[in-house]
UniProtKB/TrEMBL annotation, chain A:
PANTHER family associated with the record: ALKANESULFONATE MONOOXYGENASE-RELATED, C2H2 FINGER DOMAIN TRANSCRIPTION FACTOR (EUROFUNG)-RELATED
NCBIfam families the record matches: FMN_nitrolo
The organism's place on the tree of life at top rank: Bacteria
Annotated FMN binding sites: T104, Y158, S215
Protein name: Oxygenase
Pfam families: Bac_luciferase
An example molecular function term from Gene Ontology annotations: monooxygenase activity
Luciferase-like domain ranges (all copies): 35-353
SUPFAM superfamilies given in the database record: Bacterial luciferase-like (SSF51679)
Keyword terms, alphabetized: Flavoprotein, FMN, Monooxygenase, Oxidoreductase
Protein family according to the UniProt entry: Belongs to the NtaA/SnaA/DszA monooxygenase family.
TrEMBL record, chain B:
GO MF, any single term: monooxygenase activity
SUPFAM superfamilies referenced in this protein's UniProt entry, alphabetically: Bacterial luciferase-like
Identification of the protein by name: FMNH2-utilizing oxygenase
Binding site for FMN: S202
Keyword hit for rRNA-binding: no
Superkingdom to which the source organism belongs: Bacteria
Amino acid sequence: MTSRPMHLAAHFPGVNNTTVWAEDAQTSPPPAGPGGRQIAFSSFTHLARTAERGLFDFFFLAEGLRLREHQGRIHDLDVVGRPESLTVLTALAATTERLGLAATVNATFNEPYELARRLATLDHLSAGRAAWNVVTSFDAFTGENFRRGGFLDRADRYTRAAEFVATARALWDAAAPDGAGQPVTHTGQHFGIEGRFGLPRSPQGHPVVIQAGDSPEGREFAAAAADVIFTRHGTLEAGRAFYTDVKDRLPAHGRRPEELKIMPGVTFVLGDTDAEAQENAVEIRRRQISPQNALYALEQIWGIDLSGHDPDGPLPEADPDVDSTFVQGRVKHGDPRQIAEKWRALSAEKGLSSRETVIEATGRQSFVGTPAAVAEQMISFVDRRAADGFILVPHLTPDGLDPFVDRVVPILQERGAFRTEYTGTTLRDHLGLPAPRPRTEAGRG
Amino acid sequence: MPEPHKPTTLHLAAALSAPGAPRPYTAADWTRRVRLAEDGALDFVTLTDAFGERGPDALQALTVTAPATARVGLVPAVTTTHTEPFHLQAAVATLDWVSGGRAGWLPAVSTTEAEARLFGRRPAAPAAALWHEAAEVAEAAGRLWDSWEDDAEIRDLATGRFVDRDKLHYADFTGRTFSVRGPSIVPRPPQGRPVVVADTASPHARDLAARHADVALVHAQGPAAARAAREELLARAEAAGRDPGTLRVLAVLTVDLGGGEYAAVPSHGGGGPRAGGAGSPAVYRGGPVDLAELVTAWHDTGAVDGFHFVPADPDRDLERLINGTVALLQHRGRFRTFYPGATLRDHLGLARPASRYAAARGADRSATTQGEPA
Ligand SMILES: Cc1cc2nc3c(=O)[nH]c(=O)nc-3n(C[C@H](O)[C@H](O)[C@H](O)COP(=O)(O)O)c2cc1C
């Protein structure tokens, strides 16, 4: 290989405005059976098989345990509704052969024994392809759907997640070939459990653990316990800073740099020429930010009702209400006042309307260009240590990944940057991860 | 005496494992068993589950077979004691989506201290309290399955709306031990509500069966007892405000077909399940042909709507059951030879329910219309 080997994953189009849902923007007819594109099993099979055709490392599902709300009402502008992750991945185990299957599952609203059992079951039924993206939550809004009800202190979400992962691994390590297993006892701050696991050791021993939090606590947790990080840092500079920060944390945990893969979530837009790709990118942004969605984006920052505001007029004159609570069920990024300030400057500089400002300021596509140019940019990210690979987020369900697999993957392969066949059978094999180390200390006594 | 309820056409189902039998861990092994049941055009297969016992998660073991099968219903046990009702209903709804409308749910509870210690969250509780909670979970699940109306997804370009939020509903269930706000994260599944199959082995499970089940499993040593159990359940369903025609009752019969074609237990002449002690499972030991006779005899006397067979040795008895007993019943015109419908509700002759919230909105609308001048 002339370049560092790249790892690729396919994200099922998200429950947010990245996913373009208008029928006239789609490239294939709606599913034949019941259900729209976002829920039909044929969509999941299509995307997973496309990823497997492209020899991807894994297929990835996000999770949201409560429908998003805006001003106390269910948000209605974006795609919404999804299957339960581990169940749909178990079905995909039957329609794919090599592709890793990664589920996002919240550590706050689950219990270690049950989740460890479900993940081990997926690992068995898929012959070693299971992965778990550990996310944390502390909001009471989501908690209203669960027995736990309330929420965790923000500071406790990662102590719970770390103890959760350690407990799950203790259960996986206690598995015996016949399923009887060693008894496990764990007593900690968040969990006190005792008993036998009930499953034989699964093909990977430990399903792959992915982490997707960005705070210092989140990074430290990843450095200590994760095999892969899913990050938002998708630009070269931010990616390099994040990469260095996280990899530098590994030695303190007795781990080598290659034991933790860093994979930013990225989008892509292709065209036959650079100009065409740029045009396509603008069109996609316009689709993603409808007039209604532009107002919604403003309301999220300003925290006030802007229903009468003209999306084609200037930005709101009022300042953001920083104590507003009317946006629920969504992770907040940054200080609203600073963001509003930046948007005002952008709007003034380029003479942009509200909608144009939102289009310009939010969620720009990561890689835009001809297939060769996109391949080049991705290789350079990996070579310059801004990433070990990428989690690709297509904007169309279910065939948004097809052009990438058809046109970019062959170039990555020609350049020696990406595999030309699966050399192993398990997800650990694809990711080049070492076999799980036997744990001597954690969770056993 | 009220008129007894006439049974429906024959319904047959089978468990894919038996208590204590080793359970496989590969997709191929589970798929082979489910395909066998589908070859026999059975209504559905079940798989029990309990934390701490050996074996994979039952819902996943059946889910992995869904893409490789086309018609047979898939009914895993999912326990309600140490699990989250919200996750449970989402998983069962997802099984309905990936199987094209073939999902069911067999509610189960975790009564032991050993199970409680695997979670460390609450101590073991008496069966009565746990089945009360299971019935609450069934109620909450039903509301969440209905929480998206069928046509909630609108993709309306003019208003920029993907969903009509008036067709998404809070479940707002509050029970003794949990509450759930909703709506579900999963759109309304193909069957509207997946099929609830309630095993009434525990007397505490009967209230759940009468109120929430589409299929009730009864344990009886003979047709008279089975008929009495069925009539009691249908009466309770009626008392709970249901149309008793929406509840199917199947007798559970453990079948041991290891003795060869005609070697029924001598004292029996193949005539019926061997009487055990009170509360012990009904066991049939004999050949597949005599089992077909038994099935016909019970169904003819109007005792039950059908049977749920538990193969004593799944690897051996499932095959003999399908290729022997079921084939004979089909040959005699007593059981379907193919699936005329697509969903598990179709097989059971049960209508797809409307969302309770859509129905409520419909009622509101007609009330307003009536009150307004034309
Ligand atoms: C790239 C990325 C993807 C995420 N995906 C999910 C998700 O699918 N579901 C979820 O509940 N949280 C998700 N999160 C939220 C994180 O789990 C976490 O709650 C959040 O980032 C706050 O933690 P932090 O303060 O460590 O960043 C994601 C976070 C990141 C950075």
